[in-house]
Design a protein that fits this description.
This protein is mainly α. It has helices at 3-21, 25-41, 48-64, 70-77, 85-92, 97-106, 112-121, 124-131, 138-147, 150-158, 166-176, 180-187, 194-212, 216-255, 260-269, 273-284, 288-297, 300-309, 314-328, 337-342, 345-361. The chain is flat.
Length: 373
């Protein structure tokens, strides 16, 4: 260890010591935020001892802060990958939703198992926070759907990064019969099968008919739902047509009459993200829904690796990222051509093989494939 690093470490430990004995609440908060900034931004990764000390002292000090001060620390820690797991879990499990929510909704430290455990034992506000995470596995959404209020179900239905199992989808459709907002949120998803769209169509038609009998107020509701029903019917028509054309693309690529890159280009140009996922999943030998979740809301490194593994042109990746930002209604993530082409196809294929092994052995939710490169 260099002398500079040694001095920095010594200073960090000294500040932790001061934090542990500080009595004044305002000073304690300021000192904790300062120590947290130092811990999270230091150029050298914390040692096991530093991680343990920070977690223990921060957890202890959090209990001594005033209620209105505690959420500030959660917000400050919510997006860092360096937060000790034990500390992240303690904050996410906090009874005060103002403390728990920033960690539950954004922290990359929480695992699938953590979220399932919290969702199985916490109240509805905690479930609502989990439901807004950029990416959720079906194992987590199953619990949210089983235990959550209609507010939770609306958030899950409208979260394009939330994977929904067949069982979960059936539960959502059942609840959509009594809550039109769940149905409308589902209708905006890009990963619904024709069978699900058919059921949604029936549900909303029924709601329109019921609304028409409610008088003047019902007329406005019925008109809104009728427009949504028309959109669903059109989406169903397009989806059926797209399934046929996607199958033709796969067949043409396998027959050698079309390059995979050209096939993907056609689908990307049409804004058909689900069909892009279907084609890529076929040639990667992965589940379509998993690939769709990655393209729509997963780790961008995994997206880059899937495209490189199939030797798909950078222009198609760029257009896909534009679609991804539109679906997430967020800031567009970018990858430069130089960075994309710097990843070798062999390395990308190796990372995807590793990812498939991880998924096969069932070690929880798949990690971002970028960590395997």
């Amino acid at each position: 260890m260099s002398s500079v690093t040694a001095r920095d470490t010594q200073g960090f430990v000294e500040q932790l010591g001061r934090l542990g004995v500080e009595k004044d609440s305002e000073k304690r908060l300021a000192l904790l935020r300062g120590v947290a900034d130092l811990y999270l931004t230091h150029p050298v990764s914390p040692t096991v001892a530093e991680e343990y000390l920070f977690s223990e002292i921060a957890t202890s000090v959090m209990r001594k802060l005033r209620p209105e001060q505690r959420p500030q620390i959660s917000v400050a820690l919510s997006e860092s990958e360096r937060v000790p797991h034990s500390l992240a879990l303690a904050l996410a499990s906090d009874a005060d939703i103002a403390v728990a929510s920033p960690i539950l909704s954004r922290s990359p430290v929480l695992t699938e198992t953590d979220m399932v455990a919290i969702a199985e034992t916490s109240g509805d506000e905690h479930l609502q926070a989990i439901a807004t995470r950029p990416s959720l596995t079906a194992r987590v959404t199953d619990v949210l759907i089983d235990r959550g209020s209609n507010v939770v179900l609306r958030k899950v239905s409208g979260n394009v990064g939330a994977e929904i199992s067949d069982k979960g989808m059936m539960s959502l459709l059942t609840r959509a019969g009594d809550d039109a907002e769940i149905g409308l949120a589902l209708a905006d998803r890009g990963d619904l099968s024709p069978a699900v769209l058919d059921q949604l169509n029936t549900i909303i038609c029924t709601q329109v008919a019921a609304g028409s009998a409610e008088g003047d107020a019902g007329d406005g509701i019925a008109a809104l739902r009728a427009r949504a029903q028309a959109l669903i019917a059109e989406e169903l028509r397009k989806r059926r047509a797209n399934i046929g054309s996607t199958d033709r693309v796969i067949a043409a690529v396998e027959a050698g009459t079309m390059s995979l890159d050209s096939g993907v280009e056609t689908l990307v140009a049409g804004g058909r993200l689900l069909d892009v996922a279907q084609v890529m999943a076929h040639f990667l030998r992965l589940e379509r829904n998993f690939v769709f979740q990655q393209l729509a809301a997963g780790d961008i490194n995994t997206v880059v690796l899937t495209f490189r593994a199939l030797d798909i042109a950078y222009a198609n990746l760029e257009t896909t990222l534009v679609m991804r930002a539109s679906k997430r209604r967020g800031t567009r993530e970018t990858v430069s051509r130089a960075d994309y082409e710097a990843v070798s196809q062999a390395d990308a294929q190796r990372a995807i093989r590793f990812l498939k092994v991880r998924m096969t052995v069932g070690k929880g939710a798949p990690a971002a494939a970028g960590s395997a490169a």
